[in-house]
């Protein structure tokens, strides 16, 4: 499937793919590319709002969500606190801002590859508490087997079974890699754009929209289907 890389680390742009008429073989190709690239920008696809909802449903059970407006948000993944965090997320630009209002993405498998092996060896044994559930800091992407950081959200996160000061130190280090320029990309919206990303391997955040500009993004979130596991659990099995 023809595509244009969005960054050296991850992401691909596809233009003019008629998503409404995409057959099963075409969807398998799209899905495989998405799994390799972690994020796809789909432009010139020809979908209206109901068509977007139908396309999202091909990835799994969709949570109904209100449109996203002008507000700013911090780095994170959707439903990090859940036993099974959301599997995938999609945004559809119903109205794109004339200026500002970009959305940022960061690739966590690429971030893990930047970290020194001795630190990775330690992180592989640690878990982060997010609300009622904890998840490994290093996970194995369930469908591809790729290893990835999983940071969730920074606020109120704590690494289990280490002193508070050490938890903060390690989280600060991990987040510095997870949001580094080398593993991040900025998406500036064009009308009609659809962005699809793997919520288990990609974090995101939104810039605020300046006064006088409008951003209206239709949202779709695919319900979680996997309990996250660390690579060490597979190796020990």
From TrEMBL:
This is TauD/TfdA family dioxygenase. Residues 4-220 form the TauD/TfdA-like domain. Pfam families: TauD (PF02668). InterPro entries: AtsK-like, TauD-like_sf, TauD/TfdA-like. It comes from the Bacteria. Keywords: Dioxygenase, Iron, Metal-binding, Oxidoreductase. One of its GO terms (molecular function) is dioxygenase activity. Gene3D superfamilies: Clavaminate synthase-like. The keyword Iron applies. Belongs to the TfdA dioxygenase family. The keyword Metal-binding applies.
């Amino acid at each position: 499937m023809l595509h244009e890389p969005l960054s050296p680390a991850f992401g691909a742009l596809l233009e003019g793919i008629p998503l409404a008429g995409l057959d099963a073989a075409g969807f398998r190709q799209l899905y495989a590319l998405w799994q390799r690239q972690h994020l796809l920008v789909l432009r010139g696809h020809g979908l209206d709002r109901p068509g977007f909802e139908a396309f999202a449903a091909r990835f799994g059970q969709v949570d109904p969500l209100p449109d996203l407006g002008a507000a700013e948000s911090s780095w994170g993944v959707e439903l990090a606190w859940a036993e099974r965090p959301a599997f995938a997320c999609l945004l559809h630009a119903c109205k794109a801002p004339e200026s500002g209002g970009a959305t940022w993405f960061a690739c966590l498998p690429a971030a893990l590859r930047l970290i020194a092996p001795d630190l990775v060896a330690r992180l592989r044994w640690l878990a982060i508490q997010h609300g009622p559930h904890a998840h490994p800091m290093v996970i194995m992407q369930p469908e591809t087997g790729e290893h990835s950081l999983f940071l969730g959200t920074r606020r109120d996160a704590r690494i289990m079974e280490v002193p508070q000061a050490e938890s903060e130190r390690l989280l600060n280090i991990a987040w510095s890699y997870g949001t580094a320029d080398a593993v991040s990309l900025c998406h500036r919206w064009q009308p009609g754009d659809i962005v699809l990303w793997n919520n288990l391997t990609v974090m995101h955040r939104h810039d605020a929209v300046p006064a006088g500009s409008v951003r209206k993004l239709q949202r779709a979130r695919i319900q979680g289907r996997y309990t996250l596991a660390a690579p060490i659990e597979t190796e020990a099995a």
